[in-house]
Amino acid sequence: MRNIKELSRQQLAEWLKEQGQPAYREKQLFRWICKGASSFDEMTDISKDLRSSLSEHFSCESISVELVQISKDGTRKYLLKLIDGNFVEAVFMKYEYGNTLCISTQVGCNMGCVFCASGIGGKIRNLYAWEILDEYLVCRKEAGEDINHIVLMGMGEPFDNYDNVSEFLKDIHDPDGIGLSYRNITLSTSGIIRKIYTFADDFPQVNLAISLHAATQEEREKLMPVAKGNRLDDLIKACRAVSEKTRRRITFEYALIAGQNDRDEDVKKLSSLLSGMLCHINLIPLNPVAENGMQGSTKDAAMQFASKLEKSGIPATVRRSLGRDIDAACGQLRKKHT
Ligand code: SAH
Ligand code: SF4
């Protein structure tokens, strides 16, 4: 039986119309879905007749929490089970500015970055828009706290699942749904240039983060196969165009690998690459993933790298590493479990 949440809002409206239902029913149903309803019986403002006809045609299942790891700092790492038995990960984090949830957009990932656990085994499938929304709903319920920031930085490449991701963004932003401000959402991409332009047109208020990780084409290609077809100079050109158009700061993520991309010459190259752009570099010592043998820089080396960048005019911070005592690097929990 088809899950009702798989229908787009347009499709749902059409189905209801065929049933002779008034147009406002669609909004009622959407509201219930966004409250996390997992059966039609809960939808008390909908007539019994419609509820029974809905349950004849559709299921209303949700994804579920398979496992939670709770860190001393309040970070909660979730292994979520999809209805088809696949797993994805999400992480709840407490920051000064509010609670943040990091969510996944695909089961696995096809981009093959050498340092990343999510990419091992490739992409199994894209998540539907409703499954991405369900990550938010089930984690919020489990955490028992409101969540007002979202980062699309879990498993998967959001721009390799553009349609579902954009439907999700519209749904979570809709005042009839969660009503989350676009400004409280950040999407991270490995750098699919064509989609960066589309995204800036479609969602100019959503924060954009780019996984940079290297300051030259040659070095970046070694780490990220996506760089071969999406060249660094074109990527930076796109970022400059987008930040000028949206007037929003772009975040560059940079995982520090000891002796490989954390040298003085890397500071130099980075600062000339990004000079004059409205941007910010988010540094994080690489989380070791057993499969690749690469070592993250020390905390000290990361702090020094940040201060050298700052001195050369590029705002940089070392990301507070939350949940160190649990498997907080994306993809690691699922890999262990499956
Ligand atoms: N696919 C998207 C978003 C998910 S990954 C992207 O790549 O941007 C979220 C961030 O974690 C990315 O910046 C990614 O490069 C980084 N990351 C992946 N594996 C890592 C590791 N082992 N250590 C540190 N950062 C890592
Ligand atoms: Fe995919 Fe991002 Fe991991 Fe690269 S870093 S393999 S794009 S999830």
What's the helix and strand layout?
Layout (H helix, E strand, L loop, with lengths): L1 E2 L5 H10 L5 H11 L13 H10 E2 L4 E7 L5 E6 L5 E9 L2 E5 L3 E3 L14 E4 L2 H15 L5 E4 L9 H12 L11 E5 L3 H10 L4 E5 L5 H7 L2 H4 L2 H15 L3 E7 L7 H11 L4 E7 L13 H13 L4 E3 L13 H6 L1
Parallel strand pairs: 1-2, 6-9, 9-10, 10-11, 11-12, 12-13, 13-14
Antiparallel strand pairs: 3-4, 4-5, 5-6, 7-8
Helix pairs in contact: 4-5, 6-9
Bound molecules: S-adenosyl-L-homocysteine and iron/sulfur cluster (SF4).
Iron/sulfur cluster binds next to loops.
Which kinds of small molecule does this entry bind, naming each only once?
S-adenosyl-L-homocysteine, iron/sulfur cluster
Number of strands: 14
The largest sheet is: 10 strands, mixed
Q: What is the C-alpha radius of gyration, as a whole number of Å? A: 21 Å
The helix fraction, in percent, is: 25-40%
Lateral arrangement of strands in the main beta sheet: 3-4-5-6-9-10-11-12-13-14
- Average pLDDT, all residues: 93
Shape: elongated
Category by helix and strand content: alpha/beta
How much strand content do the residues show? 15-25%
Gap from first CA to last CA: 27 Å
Write down the secondary-structure element order: EHHHEEEEEEEHEHEHEHHHEHEHEH
Total number of helices? 12
